[in-house]
Every structure is written in C-alpha cells, then in structure tokens.
Amino acid sequence: MSSDLVVAGAGIVGASVAYHAARAGAAVTLVDAGRPGAGVTAQSFAWVGAAGVRTGPAAALRVTATAEYRRLEAELPGLPVTWSGSLSWDAANVPPEAGPGQEIVDGATVAALEPALRQPPERAVWAPGDGAVDPVGVTGRLVEGARAHGARFLPDTPVTAVRRDAAGRAAGVETAEGLLPAAHVVLAAGVATAALGAPLGVRVPVDPSPATLFRFRAPAGLVRTVVSNRDFDLRQVTADRLIAAADSSERALAAVRSTFRGAADVELLSARTGARPMPADGEPIVGPVAAVPGLYVAVLHAAVTLGPAVGRLVARELIDGVAEPVLAGCRLDRF
C-alpha cells in the first residue's frame, strides 16, 4: 500500500509531522523501531517556553512554541501540558535580563510563586506563559490523532534503508517487514537519521548529545513552577515526584535539599542518560534534500519545545508545496 508520505521515527517530531499531514488529508505511514516517544523523546526535560534563544534560525520558531502547544491542546483534548510558568535566576551578582513574554520580579514575588524556597533570589526572570509537558504522553496523543485521521502506524518496525526509484527519487523505506512505498520520505529518526542518509550520499551532520535526567521522590507541592538556576532545571511532575536536568545526581540532590524547605527527605529514584540529537551548529535541520528528490529531513535538539510548530510547517511544505519562510535558515544545504 503506497502512501503520500512515510515518516521514519515516532518521536515527538515524527509523530507531529504524521499528525499534521494526516489531518491535512495526506495518506501517511508512520514507522518506528519501538514505541511512540520511547527513545530520546522520553529523556527530555520538556520545558516549553517562547523565550530563551533570541538569535539564530530557531529563534522565530521558538517564539511560537507556547502558542503552538495551545493550538494543539484545542485540537487534541487531554494533551498532557501544565502551564505553571517558569522562574530563572543565576548567581547573585549576575543581573537577570528579561526577553519577550518575561518580566523581572523581586524576591517577594518569587517567594509567593515558590513558597518553599529557603532564600528567594533578590531578582528573577518570571515567564508566566511557560509550561511543561509529558513528552511521551504528548507523542502518544499525536500518534492517536494521526490514526484518527487515517494514518497507519507501524511500531517495532526498524527502518533499514531509504528506497530510490530508477530516476533517483525517494520511493519509500525498507523495513524488517518489507518495503513501505511512498511519494515522500521524512527522516525524523534523531541521530539515526545520519546513518539512513549516508548510503544515499546525503550527509546529515548530527551527533548524539548525552543528556541526563534525575527523578526524585519529594513532598507534594514542593515545587510549583519550572525552576531554573545554576544548579538544575527542576519541576514537579506528579504529586510526589520531581524531575531535574543537571550534571550530577549528588550535586542536584544536595542542591534541592538546600534550596527548598521541607526537602530533607527528598531521595533519588533514578538517573537516565539519553543521546539526544545535536546538529553540528546546534540549530534545527529541517527541509528537503536537493540530492534526493522526495526526501525530507527533520532533526532538532529542542524537539519537544518545537515539535508542534515543526510538524505543522513540514506538513504544509510537503502537502501544499509551499516554502515556509520561518524554516529558511534551517535547511540542510547550509552545511
């Protein structure tokens, strides 16, 4: 059965492409070596904010991040998103700077937002529109949404190669179960995208970037927002669980205990390191491959933050044949 497009990789980016393309009326096949979001997507801290990176090709994408998630919430009821806002501060002698959608708040405001802080900073950056997501849950809802619009999903089916026709055009993908023919092939397989492109003579400069997440048992309501400082990025994911992105479990645990009142009994539950894709210049690689007509790549480090936006834009480019200006700086041919 031939599809308009086959998407290789059911992380949050591939799932978003499949959902948006199927919703637009395309015949879509989504295929993955495992289960939706079970790879590096699951190892994302999953902070969604519209500020942060203010320059570079991804800046225009990032400013739409929260709006894109709110759109997706309306389309997919029950999307696991928490709009808690975020508080960020650095060392005491480093004055904070606010970007779009952010404001500088004083210590009293910080204390009201995070009552358990032992010593609120004198100044912090407050981003009330920020939130966080369950990345595996969001990916699962995207896959469900794609299937509701007619897409096929093939889990536990590794893609082994991209098939080309006699004219050199992408014609589908080879899998352990056989050929999946398609008019377009989207490679959204994270670091594996490079290996799939290499036999075609396509160089996708992306390498694994280790990222470690720590999960802690903690009192309910200890942390109310997304908290970011020089010790950790931290948020509460369930009533008695925290998740942190940090360099060391010992330092992170000590920092949590010393930063919050009532945290003496916080304990480390797990530490998992994922190999998230990192393009050579740190910016997303999104767009068609000139050397292989019909082939499209979508690989980015901030996949959870930008997944809804990228999926919508990729679907428009493939189905409507339009070149999205916001993706102009993200093309593979810049390397």
UniProtKB/TrEMBL annotation:
InterPro entries: FAD-dep_OxRdtase, FAD/NAD-bd_sf. Keywords: Oxidoreductase. Residues 4-316 form the FAD dependent oxidoreductase domain. It holds the Pfam family DAO. PANTHER family: GLYCINE OXIDASE, SARCOSINE DEHYDROGENASE-RELATED. The lineage of its organism: Bacteria, Bacillati, Actinomycetota, Actinomycetes, Kitasatosporales. This is D-amino-acid oxidase. Gene3D superfamilies: D-Amino Acid Oxidase, subunit A, domain 2, FAD/NAD(P)-binding domain. It comes from Streptomyces daqingensis.
